[in-house]
Each structure stands twice: as structure tokens, then as C-alpha cells.
Amino acid sequence: SAPHLNWTPKRCHSIIPARRMPDLPRGCSWDDLLRTSSALWCLLLLLLVWLTSSGAASLNRQGGSGLLFQTLCKASPGYLVQRVGSRRSVHREQRGASCVGAMPRGAFIVFEGLDRSGKSSQSQRLAASLKDKGHDVKAIRFPNREGPLGQLIDAFLRKDIDFTKRTCHHLFSSDRWEKQCEIQAAVLSGTTVISDRYAFSGVAYSSGAEGLPLEWCKNADSGLIAPDTVFYIDVSPEEANRRKGYGAERYEKLEIQRRVYSSYMHFSTQPYWHAIDGTKDIDSIAAEVCVKAEQVVSSVAASDAPVTTLWDNAPLQQSAKVAESTAVEGASSSSVTSRLQ
């Protein structure tokens, strides 16, 4: 009967002769093998427990270098996790309460100027120069013609579609808002962001070319991340026109550029505004810009100056709110694009 059966490997062998048990080495029994397997499983469980406790302890010791720490931070909405190259850096939404000691933030540098002023070339040269000197650099430009909003802007500038003046201004402003999370993440992780045009272009073109109230134009960009410095490549409309001539896009006309040039002067007294003589040769301009930019990058890193917002110099709002507004605007822009198509 079942209670009297001896369920050993030898007994199983006698019960099921069709499935012959493999021969074991001399001096080794199935009982020995089972005991060894159980011991190995116990060791694996102990190793798993040790790894888990070690990963938890790294929260306090390593400030985020362990895999468990990164996983916890990514799961928590109160943290912004950004990996830059081979380095991992973790920052809270509010820099005032960093993890174990936040790394110095990067600088946000903007280039402004008329069409054909040479600002795009200078922004590219500065990005390359800072990279050569070991800085982490991210180069962006506005308008960003690759996204859904950018496609609308590109069609507008090429005169394929029309908008009212105020709709046009909000369209360009929304394009800048779409990039805020990306800019914020880069700056807080120690990367210097270099932007070819920013909100100052929006104000100058909408108030100068379209005749909208300047303060109203500024209001749409209120709350954007404020740059640490702005390099304005100062070239007169006539000089810019003599270089290559203006193109065929909507604002590329001499008279419009004159009005935009006058509107840019509104910012000339601001402490962050650095006018660069754009009539000098390209290498001289690049050298001057590079020296001043390195001073800004070093100053920001040394002082760990807080990130502020445009026009009101207020502390930067939480990244979660920026992400939420960006997601809403992104969904709206996609909807507008689909309706126009």
C-alpha cells in the first residue's frame, strides 16, 4: 500500500523501468545530490537578499549610483532622472532639496539677431568650441521645424498658410514651450544648452513686424526658462541685406527687418544682453563670444545659480508642471495639424 512505499530514487527506478535514471559517479548517491542542490538554492536566496539590502543601502552611501536607486527615482514623480553620456545624475524637481549633493548645473545661452546676421554660424561654432574643451553641450534652435508645430510654422513662413497676428505669435510661443522640459533636464544635469533664437525673437518679430503690443507679446512667454546670457549679433538691416540678400520667406524683407531691428533695442539695457559687433570678421566674433561664454559657464557652475523664469526672474516651476503643460500643448498641436491636413 502507499504508506509502506519507500519513495527513494532506487524505488522510483524499480517502479518506472522505462525511464532509466542516469548513472551517478562512484561514491555519489541521489540523496547527496539533492542535499547539494538544496544548499545551492539557499546560497542563491542569501545572495539575492544581500544584493537587495546592498542596493537599499546605496541610497545613503552612493547618492544614486546603484541600479536600485535609479529604479526608485524613476518610479517617483518627485524626481527628474537624466542620463548624460556615461554619467548618471539625479535631481529633485526643486534644486533646493537635492539628493546627496547635486552637480553644478549647466548654462543656458541664447543667440539673437536679424536674418543673415551670422548668429546661426556663431552658435554652431560656440557649441563646437565648448565640446572641444570638455563641456557637455546641447544645441537647439527655434523655430523647431521638425515637430507638428514646426510644420505649421514652416508652412506659415513659406506663405503656404495664413494665421491672424495673435494666433501666429502664440504658435511660435508654443513651439518654445514644447522644448522646456528638454531644456530644463539638460541644464539641471550639468549640460550647457545653446539656442539659436528664443523668446526675444518672438517679441521682436511680433511687435516689430506685426505691430502687436510689446508687453502683450512678452506675456505669452512669461514662465519660460530664462537664459543666463544672450549674445545679440548686432548687424544693421542694410548690412545683412548686402551679405547674401534676404530670402523669400514671410519676414525676409528689408523694411520688415528694420522694424524688427528697432524692436530688439528694447532688450539692449538688460544685464543678460551682450551686443556683439557683427560687422567684424567671423573668427574675431567667435573668439569674443567664446571668451564671454566660458565666463558664463564657469560662473554658473561655481555659484550654482538657481534657474529662473523669463521676465519676472521667479524660481523655475516644478518640472512635473512643465511636463504637463508640454503634453497638453503637444496634443493640441497634433490635433491642429490633423485638422489642417
Short description:
The protein has 341 residues and is of the alpha/beta class.
Number of distinct helices = 13
Beta-strand segment tally? 7
CATH class of the domain at 108-340: Alpha Beta
- Averaging pLDDT over every residue, what do you get? 79
**CATH fold title of the domain at 108-340:** Rossmann fold
Share of residues in strands: 5-15%
Shape: elongated
State the separation between the terminal residues, measured CA to CA. 81 Å
Radius of gyration computed on alpha carbons: 31 Å
Low-confidence stretches: 12-16, 56-101, 318-323, 335-341
Question: Share of helix among residues?
Answer: 40-55%
Class by alpha and beta content: alpha/beta
Q: What is the H/E order? A: HHHEEEHEHHHEHHEHHEHH
Tell me the strand order in the biggest sheet.
4-5-3-6-7
- The CATH homologous superfamily of the domain at 108-340 corresponds to P-loop containing nucleotide triphosphate hydrolases
Largest β sheet strand count, sense and barrel closure: 5 strands, parallel
GO biological process, one term: dUDP biosynthetic process
Protein name: Thymidylate kinase
Family: Belongs to the thymidylate kinase family.
Domain Thymidylate kinase-like: 111-288
